[in-house]
Structure formats: C-alpha cells, structure tokens
Amino acid sequence: MRSNLARLCFVLMFATLAAAQNVTVPSALAGVEGGGGTSIPFGSSQACRYQCIYDAEELPWVGPRILTGILLRADNNTPNTAMPAKGYLEISVLMSTTTKSSVTASMTFAENRGTDATWVLQNQLIQLPAQPAWPPGPRPANIPFVFSVPWAYGLTPATSTLPAPRNLLVEIHIHSQPSGAYRVDNLSSCVAPQAAFGSIGPACAVPGNPPVALTADVSMLAGSAYSWHIANAPASMPFLITMNSTNVGGLLGNPAWPLPYPMFDPANPSQPSAALASLLWPAPDCWLNVDPVVSLGGLADATGLGTVTGILPSGRQLVGMTFYAQAIVLAPTANPLRFITSLGRSSTVCGPLGVARIHAFYNSTGAPPPPPPLTGAVQLGVGLVFDVM
To answer: Is 87 in the same domain as 104?
Structure first.
C-alpha cells in the first residue's frame, strides 16, 4: 500500500513539475509559424463545435502531465499586420485522451472522446485579445483559456505492463460569438526545408544561356502531389528529374565513383569519365549529383520551363525525410554527349503532422435554440497551435 502511495506521489510530483513550463503542441511548431492561419473557429458570427486530435508523437512531453490551461497563438502569415480584439465569446473547453488518431478521427464528435473527457471550462465569456503588428515569425501564445479545474494527461506512465498515454483531444465549443474576423495559427501547408547541393560548371549549358535551374514546391506533404520545376532548358526538349533518398555514396552503388560524379574525365574533358565510358562522349562541366533510383520525365516548353509532378508516399514516418533530386536535360547543341544537368535540390517532407480537425458551424439563435450538431467535417493535417500551461 505504501509503495503504491509513493508511486502515486512521484507521478503527481513529476506531472506538476512538467506543468511548470509552457510547451508547444505540436512540438514541431515550437518557434515555427504554422503555415496556414485560419478563421475556424473564431472568424464567424455563428456558433461552432470544434475538435482537434493530436497523435501522441506530436506532443512535447512523455508520460504524465497536469494541464491548467492552454494558450492559443494568433495567425502571423501576413507579418506586420495588426488584428483587433474580438469579444465577447461564450466558450466551453473539454480535454480528453482518445484512442482515435489523426487518421481514424470520426466525424461524430462524441466518438472521439475518451473515458477521461472533462469539461475544464464551461460557458465562460472570453475576449480574444488584440494582436499588434508583429515581425515575421510566430506570435506569442497569448490567447489564454485558463481551466476552472486542472486536467491530468496520462497519469498512468508507460511501463512494460501498462499502456502508453493515448492521443490528446482538445474540444472547443463556441456557444455564441459576435461577428468579426479573428485568425489563429493553424497547421496547414508547411514550408519544406530546401537546399542546393552538388557540382556544376559554367560550360554545362547551351552556349550563351545560363545553366539549367531546378526548383521545387514550397510545401512537401506525405501522401500529396509534389512538383519540381526547371528553367533555362533548351526550348521544347525532354528532361528527367532523377531522385534518391540520399546524395552520398557512389554512382550505381560503386564507392570508386563517389558523388558528385563528373560526366567527363577531369584529366581530359574531351573524354567521358570511367563510369560513363559506354556513352562514348563527354559532357564537360556537368556532374551527376544523385545516384538515380526514380526518374520522372517531362517536356520543356518554348521558353525553357518545365514541371514534373509525383505523388509522395503517405505516412507520418516520412515527415523529416529528405529527397534529393537533379535535372538532366537533352541539349543537342551543348556538348558532345548532348545532355546537360542542374545542381541538385534537396526537399524535406514537412507534413502532414499527426493532427486532425473536426468542426461544424451552426446557428444557435432561436427559441428554443437548436441543438448543436452531432457531426462535423474532418480534415487531416489541420489544427490549432497552442502552448500548454
């Protein structure tokens, strides 16, 4: 008995200490703008039922935590723009763990709640604070929903015999709100980290033209379409975008031909390199910057522009994975091999994170007022960004 009491005291002490520091949910958005501000749920004159499910992998803590409130972040996708206050809104907040995940979220609100679902704030009149003009970057989390009662997440720590804490559900019920816009920071599109890599020389181009330039879409989401774009290609010529999940190692897996690998003999640029001897002709100043595993073909237009699009595999495990790409373009007048290449371009999958949003607006006026909706629209990879108190 004493042992169990000691364990409970330790758990409560740990959870209380953890609650002493504000942390951002989802953890990947700490210090990062969400990428897609939204007027849902606060930018309407209608009532709204709103839920967000955050997979446990997106939480910035492990094990138990006492929550005493949440602090939302206002949108700053248009920097240096002020936003007026909005009030007063009648709001209730429910917190819960849930066996539902972002990909299994139900359109029925009640089905997403766990057995520990607790109304931590009920029918409170709240004013959303004015936001001053803010430089680029995320605003402070300064929209407070202070709980009337603390709520404990995961008081059962993960052990070999006990289940890990489950996913987190945040439910905000706006019973009424005045008209007026108010945008909050929101997961949506994300900015994929990109970088150029590899080698290219000035002669790897059509004479008189700049080298081929390779760019890519700003946002890279697992399970979605993603496009690479070329410029400065010869008019109406076919091209390939070759890809790999690495830009190190050797061409064709041979460590004797390390990347980036020349398409000419550096000692004698009029001759092909050893790995490409079977092609007979060189491409001076051109390099292979990736070992091709997948290639997508396209055709440049009359201005030398071209785009190819592929579908990325789905799955949260791809977030953070980097893809390495390079353009290879047919250029009959450029060199004896008649091909030119671009610098490599890396793009890192930045989403979707394991978050889902379920919401429904409705008209709460009338005598008697209509009941709130039981179901809402489900959107994967979309949700509020907030700090935990």
So the answer is: yes
If asked whether residues 220 and 365 sit together in one domain, one would say no
User: Which of 48, 129, 130 lies closest to 91, judged by CA?
Assistant: 48
Is residue 372 within 8 A of residue 49, CB to CB? The reply is yes
Average pLDDT, the chain: 90
Read off the pLDDT of residues 250-261 as tens digits, 9 standing for 90 and up.
Answer: 999 999 999 999
Q: Which domain holds residue 254?
A: 194-348
At residue 55, the 3 state secondary structure works out as: coil
Rounded CA gap, 96 and 111, in Å?
A: 12
| Coil/strand/helix, residue 170 | strand
Asked whether the beta carbons of 307 and 229 are under 8 A apart, the reply is yes
Query: Cα-flanking dihedrals φ and ψ of residue 90, to 5°?
Result: -95, 115
pTM above 0.85, yes or no: no
Domain of 263, CATH number, reads 2.20.130.20
Domain count, the chain: 2
